[in-house]
Every structure is written in structure tokens, then in C-alpha cells.
Specification:
binds zinc ion
């Protein structure tokens, strides 16, 4: 699964963080993806490959997302 994410999006990872949260904010997009844990504010960097494997679903889109993903129907 290739995830189209933008800074500010909230994603859920397959594996829970030790703090108990499995939700992360996307902080940076590049060759690597920067994530910040919503539970404890811990920051990590994942490669695109790791990120795509670990994400379970996208919880929320950044409110100011400039480029809306085309194939994403509104709930
Ligand atoms: Zn955490």
C-alpha cells in the first residue's frame, strides 16, 4: 500500500507505541517520513518503504492540505 500523506495528517500504525498510542502526526515528508507520537510526542523518522508497511490507516487529513487526494471520498 502506498500512502499519500501530507504534513499534519494523522495516521494509525499497525504497532502500538510503548506509551499506548498508535496514532502519529506526520511532521515531514521527504525521502524519509517524519512522525510524532500523539501519546508522548516522541519523534521518529521512517523510510518511505517502512512507512508504507507500518501504516494501518489514515485517521485525519490536515485541514490545510493544498493538494486533496483525488480518490478519497468524503465520509
Ligand atoms: Zn508514544
Amino acid at each position: 500500500m502506498l500512502w499519500d500523506v501530507h504534513p499534519g495528517d494523522i495516521v494509525e500504525l499497525r504497532k502500538q507505541h510503548p506509551c499506548g498510542s498508535s496514532q502519529w502526526t506526520v511532521t515531514r515528508i521527504g525521502a524519509d517520513i517524519g512522525l510524532k507520537c500523539l501519546g508522548c510526542a516522541h519523534r521518529v523518522m521512517l523510510t518511505r518503504g517502512d512507512f508504507n508497511k507500518r501504516v494501518k490507516k489514515i485517521i485525519a487529513r490536515a485541514a490545510n492540505a493544498a493538494q486533496a487526494p483525488p480518490a478519497m471520498p468524503e465520509p
